[in-house]
Amino acid sequence: MIHATEAKQLSRAASRLLFTHLDFATKPNGQYPSEDFQKVLARSSFDGEFVHTTAKELQLARNEDIDLQQRSPLAKSLLYHLRGLSPDAINAQFDGVRTATFAHARRQRAFTRRVDVALDIHEWLYYGSDDTPHVCAVNPDRGTNLAYAFVTLCIVDPAVRFTLASESVEANDSRTLRESIRRLIGTAREFVEINRVYCDRGFYRVPLVETFVELDLEFVVRAPQTVGVKRALDAHDTSSFVTDYEMVRKNPPTGRVPVTLVVVPHRTRDDDSFCLVTNCAVSKDAAEPLAEAYRRRWGIETSYRKIGEFLPRTSSPTFAVRLFEFLFAVAMYNLWILVCLFLAEQREFTDRPAVSTALFRLFVLSVPDG
């Protein structure tokens, strides 16, 4: 049985862990204290709302007389301070949050064994000019082909689904992603031993697979049905098979990397195949279990979707604002996972989180605003 009082206390403690590491570079005689900025960001994070809206909500709760048709002075002050922070300073602050979060997780014996992880690219869509610094070209989606892009590395064990590392990228080319992967894996290895890395089709590239090999990682990558993969499908008269395969890059810099191609029937589409490439030792009998492990570990809940539940809305083109708010969402997500970890042994239903994100929000925001 999980008692609401204990869950609330843990949630409030988690939020304090975050806020004690944040520095908005406010002055002692400033119009608004850091505590106001913290409340606005927390509200925006949980509600998926613009900071100008949540700032007005906070000011109205205090019975402040504000002009509803003008931008909130509290929000303007917050954004002014965020724009004044350097990316290095922002990253350093949230590195401290991550270290503190994982220190608490270790006390709960969260990382006593090797973990499976997933790499993902989070695209925060942008509707401004393509000349905006740090904006990345992406596939068209919801009326734009621009986004602030972040590569994330998340543990995929349902019990400890922390986001271990994240990094902004300004391009989606293989060279950029290759260097980012190296840094993310290096950061992750400071906290855990990695068993296997799972990736979607966006990572099906010779240079990226070569990087996994160089980093001595077991990998499983979803394979699109390229010309080579289709040729392998045509060469087999069974719907499920395992075969040696070679990924080839014909454009400079050219490259080849040997892998194992694993094919099983698609679960929802008749006459279609579900394809993976891996460097794991896989027998034909192990093909379906590997595919199911990929579906289960990748599909249940990726960091991409869950981080989005904690992401404030903004139209700001300033990279510092975007970076701060994205890392704030990652930190909030990890702290929710931490609270669930502390309460895990008290769960009656093991197929759901100990505390829902909605209740976590309620507990964190339950302190009076007056």
Description:
With 370 residues, the chain is α+β, with helices and mostly antiparallel strands. The protein is 42% helix and 20% strand. Strands 1, 2, 3, 4, 5, 6, 7, 8 and 9 form a 9-stranded mixed sheet that branches. The mean pLDDT is 91.
Compact summary:
The chain is of the alpha+beta class.
Topology, please?
Blueprint: H1 4-19, H2 34-47, H3 51-61, H4 73-83, H5 87-107, E1 115-126, E2 136-141, E3 144-155, E4 163-169, H6 174-188, E5 194-199, H7 206-214, E6 219-222, H8 227-234, E7 241-249, E8 255-265, E9 273-278, H9 287-299, H10 303-308, H11 319-342, H12 357-364
Parallel strand pairs: 1-5, 5-6
Antiparallel strand pairs: 1-3, 2-3, 3-4, 6-9, 7-8, 8-9
Helix count, DSSP H or I runs of 4 or more residues: 12
Q: Stretches where pLDDT falls below 50 for ≥5 residues?
A: none
The Cα radius of gyration reads 23 Å
Biggest sheet features: 9 strands, mixed
Strand content: 15-25%
Task: Give the helix level as a range of percent.
Answer: 40-55%
Write the H/E string, N to C: HHHHHEEEEHEHEHEEEHHHH
- Give the overall average pLDDT: 91
**Global morphology:** globular
Structural class, please? alpha+beta
Number of strands: 9
Q: End-to-end distance, in Å? A: 33 Å
Which structural traits does this protein have?
42% helix; single chain; 370 residues; 9 strands; 9-stranded mixed sheet; alpha+beta
